Please model this.
Amino acid sequence: MEEKMKQLKEVDEKVKKKKELEEEAKRKLRDKKKADLEARRKQEEEARQQKIQELEEEHKKQQELQRRKHEFEEEERKKRIAEAKRLQEQREQELERERQTEKKRILNEIEEKEKRQRELHERQEREQKLRDEKEKERVEREKKNKGEREKRMKQERDDYERKRLAQLFKEKEEQERKDREKRQQVERERWEKEKKLREEAIREKRRQEEERERQRIFEEKKRAEEKKRKAMLTTDSYEMTPPPPPKVRKAPTGENYDISDLNSDDSTDDEDAPRKRVPPWAQGPALKATMINQELMNINTDMIFGPIRSTLDLDDVFRVKRKRFYQRTSSAIWHSPPMKYLLPGKIV
Model:
């Protein structure tokens, strides 16, 4: 037991010594790190101080360079000002010499002009003197030839007047001849046109008579067949519902193209083979003449029909309003929905 206690004590002492050694090593390591950090801080501080010093020296150098540059530029500016001043003085001197030269040139031109004007005036005086002499000679000649010239001019005027009257008379006769021929031509054309219209009217009248005769024969045959059919029906053993009365179709005339036998759902005639004969006034020369007259009459439709409204209000046309009238179907407008709050009146 005592040996165990001893051994434990020795182990504790070893552990304690080991801990002390570790603590000492840690302390030395901390001191070393602290010393290293202090040395590094001192080095950084020295480097920073050195950098600041270098920057200050560089700044001084820059200031010195700026000062030298400013002095150099100032000297250059002064040199340029001096050079510009010298050039300005030189230009002023040249301008002064040019003004003096121009002044001398203008004086010389004025002298030359005055000299030419004097020479021109002298030449005009000589020419005027010659013209006066010639005019005097011409007046004397005119006085001598005036009587003969007046006599000759009178003869020429008489001849011209006779020729002019003869020409006017000839032109008047020619114009009268042309007017007569024109009137005759118009009369012939009018007579031929009336002749054609009369012949066309006669032919149309004959066609209408033939058509009426054919229609009359057709109706007689139809009435005979109807009587025969009724006679056959009366022989049956029992009574049958009588058939509807046949439609009596009015024969179309020149003024009425009858369509009373057509229902609203019937199809229209084939253009190449119409069931009804086209009336005379809707074809041929009659239609052409009607269209020409209509074109030349210049009809004012506003005076006949009055002003036309740009839009039609259906509420004025259909007094009774129903809900289905406002439903949007395949033929309605689709770019906007119906606005019921804008509809007037009450929907029933």
